[in-house]
User: Fold UDP-glucose 6-dehydrogenase from Populus euphratica.
Amino acid sequence: MVKICCIGAGYVGGPTMAVIALKCPDIEVVVVDISEPRIAAWNSDQLPIYEPGLDDVVKQCRGKNIFFSTDVEKHVAEADIVFVSVNTPTKTQGLGAGKAADLTYWESAARTIADVSKSDKIVVEKSTVPVKTAEAIEKILTHNSKGIKFQILSNPEFLAEGTAIEDLFQPDRVLIGGRETPEGQKAIQALKSVYAHWVPEDRILTTNLWSAELSKLAANAFLAQRISSVNAMSALCEATGADVAEVSYAIGKDSRIGPKFLSSSVGFGGSCFQKDILNLVYICECNGLPEVAEYWKQVIKINDYQKSRFVNRVVSSMFNTVSQKKIAILGFAFKKDTGDTRETPAIDVCKGLLGDKAILNIYDPQVTEDQIQRDLIMKKFDWDHPLHLQPKSPKSAVKQVSVTWDAYEATKGAHGICILTEWDEFRTLDYKKIFDNMQKPAFVFDGRNVVNADELRRIGFIVYSIGKPLDAWLKDMPAIA
Ligand code: NAD
Ligand code: UDX
Assistant:
């Protein structure tokens, strides 16, 4: 029986390994992590992450051919294939701060592999890493190898949160990069045979190591660029009376452009896009390509612009101040169907409103009060000025924030509503009931274009929808970005 060990039981390691275990009953998988609470949660009925379909998959194979453990050394030592799926955040200090990937966790995992291995192994980069990381890892492993042979493969993960199980069941492609040596090719075939249990052969792409590593950064950069492009258009739509949804539809009908990933929003969030683009920017700069670096940086600048444009619109529409006004925030997660709040645009929007002394009442179906409070007092990491002193964290802000478990409760007595996540339930709320319980004039600022604006206007709301023609009210109170 082939034994797989995955280091890192997070959003990627957990679901990816659960699907491998489900689809490959002949393989034993152990997912290890240094975090005891995380492993305890994977072994309980309350999994550490919310992901549609995940519970089912885990229940079907946990205790049969997938196990979760904190005994990293034992399970790494016993494995034939070791996936490394640890976090690779942006460096916040030192050389490359604000852009470069922090590979501390990766290096520590690699050293553990080198220390405890007693047999040859295939080591798979599952984390998103800078191009050429495999070379550094090879050095760590071979310099500490005691004669053991390691083959490094790059097998970046393309799943998106909220649809992880679907994406893993039916991936557009699986990418495996390896050395162009006979041993490298053999390792590629070994990993290919794992995925071949359920992924059609023509969807398993094999490349050299550096192409696989760079393809992951490139894919995320291209996806994020589409969102920043449509968000840039949304500002122009508001200025001209065009409707961004109609523009997206019209351009998406061009088969060369395609319809996906063209929804205008309050900004993209999530743990990947900003981090991976900054990483790409840093790699370009290190390779003497400042123009290319500047090009990709613009994707993040537009994203920041979109978030502050939204805040400015809220404040300017409400007579240029939200001080002591109650604002209901519907949705805090970075997208629907996840409880993940990493880099969620809601953090920046809430902080912007708190900066103008608003009182926030927040509701998200999957994010806990604790998480929201932590996110709002955490110092904002300023990627553009990482070395400057950060402003003191606004501890007092927390007092201005309450969290409810119901959209109706959150909107009671509010002056305005900001919709920041596209949860399906926000489309079908009883907005008449909500309107009746709000202060007047009652505002809705729809950062995800989920509500039927015309219907809400008929009820009496003043509605702002990203990138859509403005109400007369909003036209009279232009937001200064
Ligand atoms: P995560 O923070 O959810 O999980 C990482 C886990 O690794 C944590 O539980 C941490 O405790 C553990 N860990 C860190 N160092 C360790 C060590 N030395 N030994 C054992 N465990 C250790 O991160 P994630 O969202 O799963 O992302 C992991 C990687 O996958 C990142 O590089 C990310 O860029 C990439 N990725 C993420 C997504 C996504 O949607 N989240 C998608 C594709 C790729
Ligand atoms: C992304 C990539 O899609 C995935 O392939 C990669 O493996 C990890 O990073 P994820 O961040 O989980 O996945 O979610 P994604 O669906 O890409 O959404 C990212 C952000 O973009 C969210 O905040 C989402 O709301 C926003 N978005 C997405 C838009 O604003 N408009 C769109 O049209 C699509």
